[in-house]
């Protein structure tokens, strides 16, 4: 079994380029039911290629059916587009010197419209637009350093302060609804609060309105399998041994949470992870009758771990690298260790002594890997990870310094 797992671990790394090429065909498109609003005429219904806000800000790919060819539209060629599952994009012009045409996502619509644009650095910018003044008005806040002088001592002190230009913009727009207008003095430039405030204003002034999109947390499920090899330091009297376990099967499941308030590159993971460790070594030991003992150590551990990880991953490309780190707690469902002594000149029997092992371990975990999207169905994950745990034995220093290396392949379901 160990040889099979070793071959499997090697093949994961060798197959990485092939998996990337194979998955790229599925990752090239992600058509979902949607529509396009032409400059004139009726709405075109079919499928829209949805591949992230960065791409969606400059290009819309549309096809009438799964069998039809795709047509590409720029912001100057249509009024906008949308997805039936949620997400409406409107062609607009950035209020900057270049007057760049882009697609902006509509977050709330009515007498006052709230729009969001994702720039090339993947940062989000918010704009307000009214029916009477179609020019976009930027909504910004910023932190600045202010120099304050103590009037008594004349000492200078630099203080960080936050300014809210966007409040003045909305204050002027919302003059016809004092109830909502007065709440602006406490408003921060946060998407959920902006949507709530604009929706309240549109309700106050009446007329048709629509909340286009509400950010929600995303939860995805993963399953993975691979191999695990660990090392420990074993101390017997004055002798120290570095032991390496066999390569043994490892597998688990994970929940991947992307909170709506997080940076899009960040996610939280909680896993259930099964690992095994087996060590065997034979050496010359010293016993009650002096040296000459043939001593054999056997250790057999099986654990169910609960890693809690923070992952940073790239969100673009056919192959998307990621790095993650966090803590792991392992419950040892099997923890057996013993040493047996054999002294040929006195007896043919072996004397067996048990070594008490801890029922649990805690430590840190670090991993790197790649995600290969396979369209709307999910993504392939290839990962290598290291973990380091506290003392394996109940008595400190007997079996300690556990370091694990694993190579895993898995699949995450959903986008």
Automatic annotation (TrEMBL):
It comes from the Bacteria. InterPro entries: Beta-barrel_OMP_2. It holds the Pfam family OMP_b-brl_2. Residues 1-25 form the signal peptide. Residues 244-386 form the Outer membrane protein beta-barrel domain. Keywords: Signal. Gene3D superfamilies: 2.40.160.20. This is PorT family protein. The lineage of its organism: Bacteria, Pseudomonadati, Bacteroidota, Cytophagia, Cytophagales.
